[in-house]
């Protein structure tokens, strides 16, 4: 969560992904998992819509994963983190 106490160095590295839900639909979330700082973490993330691709954010290093979204609508994320993103998943609603 970003708030007034978020360090400025962290804010400078942040990227915003804006998906215009009136025009485009999220159709794939992909990335890589691998070793970083002696931990297995999500090392990169990408988001694709029917109009744009955002990312990769991070370094594409490790095992590739992909969550194609068809016959469903993206509803949200869930995950687990410590110092880094350890796991990420998506909630989907049937269409």
Automatic annotation (TrEMBL):
It comes from Mikania micrantha (bitter vine). This is Jacalin-type lectin domain-containing protein. InterPro entries: Jacalin-like_lectin_dom (IPR001229), Jacalin-like_lectin_dom_plant (IPR033734), Jacalin-like_lectin_dom_sf (IPR036404). Residues 1-94 form the Jacalin-type lectin domain. Belongs to the jacalin lectin family. GO terms for molecular function: carbohydrate binding. Keywords: Lectin. Transmembrane segments: none annotated. Pfam families: Jacalin.
